[in-house]
Amino acid sequence: MEGMYAFCVGLLTACGIFLALRGRTFSVVIGLTLLSYAVNLFLFASGRLKLNAAAVLEQSEQYSDPLPQALVLTAIVIGFAMTAFVVILAMRARADLGNDHVDGTIPEPPNNTTQKSGGSQ
Amino acid sequence: MNSLIWLPFLPLLGTLIPLITARFSRTACAFMTAALPALTLFLVLSHAGDIFQGERFQAALPWIPAIGLELAFRLDGLALLFAILILGIGLLVILYARYYLSAKDSIGKFYAYLILFMFAMLGVVLSDNLIQLWFFWELTSISSFLLISFWGHKTEARKGARMALTVTGAGGLALLAGLLILGNTVGSFSLQDVLDSGELIKASANYPVIVVLVLLGAFTKSAQFPFHFWLPNAMAAPTPVSAYLHSATMVKAGIFLMARFYPALADTNLWFLIVSLTGLITFLVGAYIALFQHDLKGLLANSTISHLGLITLLLGMGTDLAAVAAIFHIINHAIFKASLFMAAGIIDHESGSRDMRQLNGLWKYMPYTATLAMVASASMAGVPLMNGFLSKEMFFTETLHQASLGSLSWFIPVLATLGGVFAVAYSTRFIHDVFFNGEPINLPKTPHEPPRYMRVPVEILVALCLVVGIFPSLVVGDLLLAAANATLNGPAPTYSLAIWHGFNFPLLMSVIALIGGLYMYYNRSHLFKFQAQFPTSDPKLVFEGIVQSLVVKAQRVITMTENGSLQRYVFFTLGFAVVMTASSLMKLNTTAGQRPEIPVDALSITCAVLLCISALATVIWHRRRVVALLTLSVVGLIVSLAFAQFSAPDLALTQLSVEVVTVILLILALFFLPQKTPKESSPRRVVRDLSLASLIGGVIGTISYALMTRPLDTISTFFTENSKTGGGGTNVVNVILVDFRGFDTLGEITVLGIAALGIYKLIAKMRLFMPSTDDNGLPWSEDRHPILLTVISQSLLPLALLVSAYIFLRGHNMPGGGFIAGLITSVAIIQQYIAHGVEWIKTRIKLDYQIMIGSGIGIATLSGLGSWIFGHTFLSSWFDYFYLPVIGKFELASAMIFDLGVFLTVVGATMLILANLGQLTTSERPIQKEHD
Question: Could you tell me which residues belong to the region Disordered (chain A) (predicted)?
Answer without folding.
Answer: 100-121
